[in-house]
UniProtKB/TrEMBL annotation:
InterPro entries: 2Fe-2S-bd, 2Fe-2S-bd_dom_sf, 2Fe-2S_ferredoxin-like_sf, 2Fe-2S_ferredoxin-type, 2Fe2S_fd_BS, Aldehyde_Oxdr_Iron-Sulfur, Beta-grasp_dom_sf, TAT_signal
Record keyword Hydrolase present: no
Gene3D superfamilies found in the cross-reference section: 3.10.20.30, [2Fe-2S]-binding domain (1.10.150.120)
GO molecular function: 2 iron, 2 sulfur cluster binding; metal ion binding; oxidoreductase activity, acting on the aldehyde or oxo group of donors
Protein's recorded name: Xanthine dehydrogenase YagT iron-sulfur-binding subunit
Length: 259
């Protein structure tokens, strides 16, 4: 089995060295595990992580090395081999023909950024981008992705540089628990292409008039993102983030620190 270890950058070493000095060696040797993650979450709730947010962006947004889980064909029922690109890297993976893209990403490729919310196509948490269009990976069979290009949230940042949409979500605090966030961000990134191509939505007026490129209003953004549910209700911040990423103009934050 391939080594799944992505070496830490110097910034990440510093971040973890400051936050969790006693675990640094272990993190370097074996990567972040659940215990470290829970500690990070604890620090985030205590506000301490905010002071390290630049390093945290890098630590939490960076792509990961792929670890394709190889199973002997006998262990996979109805095995099919699927070859597709994931975050620009080609993979050849043997899957059960009934396996969803979401399970393939999470269970076979170790890409756990895409979340399983409802597993029924109702929440949008599992949204990824296939050939430029957003799809619900819980309703997409991996076998249908042969020869396609799949982008998950892990593929949006380039090295240590966030995708502008990720940066805008951070700036506008477009997440609270964060469980829906990878789907929201993938959806929002693909939304940019839809707007650029002038694709109409349910509330676009005069759909008979072909449009070249649409600058989205708040209502248009809300309508087009309505398939992505956020149970924490970060919607105003998400709309502000998408608006800023689409127009390239700073949108005033709807929140501020007090005290
Ligand atoms: S997990 Fe796919 S839509 Fe909810
Ligand atoms: S940030 Fe919690 S569900 Fe969206």
């Amino acid at each position: 089995m391939a080594n799944n270890q992505t070496p830490l950058t110097e910034e990440e070493k510093k971040l973890f060295g400051d936050l969790m000095p006693e675990e640094l060696e272990e993190i370097i040797d074996s990567g972040l595990n659940r215990r470290h993650f829970m500690k990070l979450i604890g620090l985030a709730s205590a506000g301490l992580l905010a002071a390290y947010v630049v390093g945290a962006e890098q630590a939490l947004a960076r792509g990961v090395a792929l670890d394709v889980q190889e199973f002997p064909p006998a262990a996979v029922e109805n095995a099919v081999t699927v070859n597709f690109k994931i975050n620009t890297q080609s993979v050849n993976v043997v899957v059960d023909s009934r396996m969803t893209l979401l399970d393939t990403l999470r269970e076979r490729l170790g890409l756990t950024g895409s979340k399983k919310g409802c597993d029924h196509g109702q929440c949008g948490a599992c949204t990824v981008i296939v050939d430029g269009n957003r799809v619900l990976s819980c309703l997409t069979l991996a076998a249908t992705c042969e020869g396609r290009s799949v982008i998950s949230v892990e593929g949006l940042a380039k090295n240590n540089t966030l995708n502008p949409m990720q940066a805008a979500f951070l700036k506008h605090d477009g997440f609270q628990c964060g469980f829906c966030t990878s789907g929201q961000i993938c959806s929002a990134v693909a939304l940019m292409k839809e707007a650029k191509e002038g694709q109409a939505s349910y509330i676009t007026s005069n759909i008979r008039q072909p449009q070249s490129s649409i600058t989205l209003s708040d209502d248009e953004i809300a309508e087009r993102m309505s398939g992505n549910i956020c149970r924490c209700g970060a919607y105003p911040n998400i709309v502000a983030a998408i608006k800023e990423a689409q127009t390239g103009k700073a949108v005033e934050q709807t929140w501020q620190f007090v005290g």
